[in-house]
Amino acid sequence: MHPHIQFKPAVNELHLLDQRLLPLTEDWFVCRNMADIITALKEMVIRGAPAIGVTAAYGCCIAAGTIDPNSPSWQAELDAQLTELAQARPTAVNLTWAVTLMRQTWQDHPEMDLKALRTAWITQAVAMHRHDEDVNREMGRHGAALLRDGDTVMTHCNAGALATGAYGTALGVIRAAVESGKNIAVLANETRPFLQGARLTAYELAQDHIPVTVCCDNAVGLLMTKGKVQAVVVGADRVAANGDAANKIGTYTVAVLAKRHGVPFYVAVPFSTIDFATPSGAEIPIEERTPREVTHIQDRRISPESVPVLNFAFDVTPAELITALITEKGVIKPSDLRQYAST
Ligand code: MRU
């Protein structure tokens, strides 16, 4: 896929393929300051945990390029912008992970002026972006071995190139299996209300000529009853120390059904998404988004004005329902995850 996150340091811009408009329109959202970056994150111009992390890293560079280096308060201004950035979305831990790493560089070099800090951050952000693609390819290699030639794999939401720096986590596993010569078909759950599955997963896989079929979220039980799913592979926004995994709303339902039907349920997740500081899924903050995503389809209202809406964006799949975590360090049973806490 064409790189969907493009940083232009010479003009201090971050160009993001606008995921709100896909698949019908390919247009770019240009971020020139921290307000633009935060808008892009909150309104889901860009989304998906690792992509949020990479965008945040570039966002720090953009912020450093907009503040007056001669201002006596540049440190305070930058600090305030980074604090606001880290709060843009609560569930995907890659956001705070990336901002913390960028802050660490600043703390380690208090002697740097703003120009030097920006230069160091650009190197760091580009490296983070490249590293994300590398770990996705590594996860792909580990995960591909779990899929058999001829399997149909169900996925939920979009954990593809668009949700990462490149290549994808769950879709990276599928891509790697296909690249190794296996015939794999994909069932993409549509993923109400933002439709990441119907719009983004279907778009990416169709571009790569990987057979993909879109299903309504509420068809999962029937499809499993009919034996149409041999494995489920999803991504995650945060995995707690005990292996509980937060992912797009509806993932838990898919996992319960997979258990009931004896279908293996895999979570493909880089270590940047594993949060050993969060003991279990109960402590993972769950984002609630605007009711408008549920009450409207594009600009058309579909539910009565007076009726309230619940729009939780994520749910937590308990570790006991997860067959294995597919990581860049190998395939790990959730119960063994704590052994990796200090690696
Ligand atoms: O609200 P979103 O679209 O940011 O949610 C994204 C997901 O839930 C993805 O499955 C998750 O971030 C994994 S992305 C590799």
Structure in words:
The protein is of the alpha/beta class and 343 residues long. The chain has 2 domains: 5-136, Up-down Bundle (Four Helix Bundle (Hemerythrin (Met), subunit A)), CATH 1.20.120; 142-340, Translation initiation factor eif-2b, domain 2 (Rossmann fold, 3-Layer(aba) Sandwich), CATH 3.40.50. Helices cover 37% and strands 17% of the residues. The chain has 10 helices and 16 strands. It has helices at residues 34-42, 49-66, 74-86, 94-108, 114-144, 170-179, 196-207, 220-225, 251-260, 292-295, and strands at residues 5-8, 13-17, 28-31, 152-155, 185-189, 212-215, 231-234, 238-240, 245-248, 265-268, 274-275, 296-297, 300-301, 314-317, 324-327, 330-332. The strands form 4 sheets. The protein has a 7-stranded mixed β-sheet. Strand 15 (324-327) and strand 16 (330-332) form a beta hairpin. It is globular, with a radius of gyration of 20 Å. 47% of the residues are buried. The model has no long low-confidence stretch (mean pLDDT 97). The structure holds 5-S-methyl-1-O-phosphono-5-thio-D-ribulose. 5-S-methyl-1-O-phosphono-5-thio-D-ribulose (MRU) binds at residues 47-50, 92, 157, 159, 163-164, 169, 196, 235-237, 247-248, 313. 5-S-methyl-1-O-phosphono-5-thio-D-ribulose is lined by residues 47-50, 92, 157, 159, 163-164, 169, 196, 235-237, 247-248, 313.
